[in-house]
Write a structure and sequence with these properties.
Length: 252
């Protein structure tokens, strides 16, 4: 993460907006702000900030619509600022492409930690360098993945998961590490979520836990992405530590 980030704050509450701008500026960030959605969207497009802090309740254009419009053209990291933790609108925002959220009132240390995590994930240690593993190609810059030259139709999370595993190709990574880096949940407890996404990813890669190609589950340890090797035919015994491939799709 750049130590100094350009942060765009989109918030209509003047007290919260000015407090955020002041605190972020004090911490050395370059900060711009907007009090309404359309102005905020315009600034996000014109100024290319490193990260956007987005209040969901805006007077002219609601945060979800803004997010969808922004996502249609940019992958700028967005942290949603919300009043309630269990707000269904947070889930909606995450589904619409928000990278994370904070609940009011929040401390600046927490906000900065989340900004760092989001910037680390989106700019990534491996940067925008394209990766090739066997016949699998992944381009972080365009967020496109192909297998044998055919584009894979991946959700945002599936792409992030594949990219993370590809950046650690050949290594066994634990589901906890995956949760921490791909889902930003460092405290575990969501391994089932990883299993379900792995299962979807396998289906899109045309493989299964019992007949792995690129994705290998190592029982009790984690997952390893590696190019299929031709001398390993047939079902491997490192299978079946994750969700059955027929797992119901819990997405709405
Ligand atoms: Ca508001």
């Amino acid at each position: 993460m750049p130590t100094v980030a350009h942060v765009l704050v989109i918030e209509d509450d003047p007290a919260i907006r000015s407090a955020l701008v002041r605190s972020l500026t004090d911490r050395g960030h370059a900060v711009s702000s907007a009090r309404a959605g359309l102005d905020g969207l315009q600034q996000a497009l014109d100024d290319s900030p490193d990260v956007v802090l987005l209040d969901l309740g805006l007077p002219d254009l609601d945060g979800h619509s803004l997010l969808s419009m922004l996502r249609a053209v940019r992958q700028t990291p967005v942290i949603v600022v919300t009043a309630r933790d269990d707000d269904p609108s947070v889930v909606k925002a995450l589904d619409a492409g928000a990278d994370d959220y904070v609940v009011k009132p929040f401390g600046m240390d927490q906000l900065e930690a989340r900004m760092r995590a989001v910037l680390r994930r989106t700019s990534g240690d491996g940067g925008s360098q394209a990766l090739e593993i066997g016949e699998l190609a992944i381009d972080p810059a365009s967020r496109e993945a192909t297998l044998r030259g055919e584009a894979l139709d991946l959700s945002r999370r599936e792409f992030d998961l594949l990219l993370y595993l590809a950046r650690h190709a050949g290594e066994v990574v634990s589901k906890r590490e995956v949760l921490a880096d791909v889902w930003n949940q460092p405290y575990g407890g969501g391994e089932r979520t990883v299993d379900v996404h792995l299962s979807w990813l396998r289906r899109k890669l045309g493989e299964s836990a019992a007949h792995p190609g690129y994705l290998h589950s190592i029982r009790g340890v984690g997952i390893r992405l590696a190019a299929p090797s031709e001398d390993l035919e047939g079902p491997a015994d490192d299978s079946a530590d994750d969700a059955p491939d027929g797992a119901p799709d819990p997405r709405p």
